[in-house]
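ok so I'm stuck.
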Amino acid sequence: MAITTDIIKELRDSTGVSIMQCKKALEEAGGDIEKAKVILRKISATIAGKKADRTLGAGTVAAYTHAGGAVVGVVVLGCETDFVSRNPEFGKLAYDIAMHVAAMAPQFRTKDDVKDEDVKAAKAVFEKEAANVPDDMRQRAVDGKLDSYLKDKVLLEQPFVKDPTQTIRQLVESAVQKFGEKIEVVRFERLSVK
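replied:
not stuck anymore, here's the structure
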């Protein structure tokens, strides 16, 4: 498939990544836009890893109110510079994550934030549930349930509410690639009437 400027523009519009990176990803994917998106996500993770040591010096706070004021999600999204923090697309990213927090009610930011007591309590419940599973499969069943439980409770592991094909972590990694600096969910809070 020929890689035209229209295809490059379409990929750029849907991902926000630079034209050159879009062109390289399309060349590697043989012109297939969906494969190019996957390639760009892999590149995003690599770039985010390289920028992990950088210091956050700026950011923004976004809040999303839902259900007639009964639920609020608030996010502090950090970045390196004021230049990025004032970018409307950065503000939209923070707002989208705040909306996700309001909708999905995560309890922890990362897996590292999960306390050992919480893991032990969940594991005890899952071991009781797996009591009837054959011995050779029991540990795998417990580990699978624990992994699923953590994905449900940890913000960065949850599928993004507006696009379940990517997690919040992948969304942030894409933003790192797009803006060219370290971006991190510093803190979040969900408040509700009930």
